[in-house]
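I have been asked to look over a protein record a colleague put together. Alongside the sequence sits a line of tokens, each denoting a local backbone shape. Please read both lines and tell me whether the tokens look consistent with the sequence. Take the sequence as given and treat only the tokens as open to question. I have pasted the whole thing underneath without changing anything:
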Amino acid sequence: MHQISHFFAILSSCAFTTGFVTPLTTRQSTQSTALFGIPIPVFPLRRTVRLPTESLTLNLYEERYLKLAEYVLQQEHPYFGAIYSSNKPQIVRNGTGPIVPLFERGDVGVLFLVLDSEESMIPTRGGIPRRRIRLVARGSVRFQIEKILENGYDDSSFILVEGNVFTDQSTADEENCSPDFVDLARTTQAALNIDAILEQSLSLELASFDTVSQQLPDGRFRERLQAIHCRNTQERLSEPAEKLVFRWWR
């Protein structure tokens, strides 16, 4: 198994001694602090909506996704984007495949940092071994598509976009934050070289997503998508609880 050792090196270098984070009293616009415009390989999620702080494991067999994994693992800090695609128009090339979602500028997804990877040959029914790459990752910051670089329509190509950090415009009034979310925010900052101001507020944002993750099970696609697109931390924390009560009343 190939361990992504430098990822853990970042965590150790970002050692955190206290679990307290002072909320920002003023905050610059995300356009001035969060713009990064980096290429992001995108994996379309068809059966689940994953939130920041949640884990995601990809078992990749198709040629285009093997190339995606190779691209990801060549990066100093391996990462990829994931966007729910079942609500998007789909294109089937030549009536046979591949089935590719039609993403567009403005779509929002979650950036996942790779924790671990494994490559192996898996036996098939026909007895011919098949290559597989397994990626284990954790959701960190959200991103918004700025430009489509590759649409992934060819069998051997994958979706590649240019994106901007998509963060909350206001944070919850919390006096402290779990060290786990502070570490994840710092790891994200190191991987993407984003502003330290964003790193501090991101830890509170991640804490809110962890709460929403516990309130909304995997099957609640619509509410999870709303949480991803919401840019107010306090609203994100209050909406799931209200929806749960309303659903029970009905």
Notes: The longest strand covers residues 130-151. Residues 122 and 130 are 5 Å apart (CA to CA).
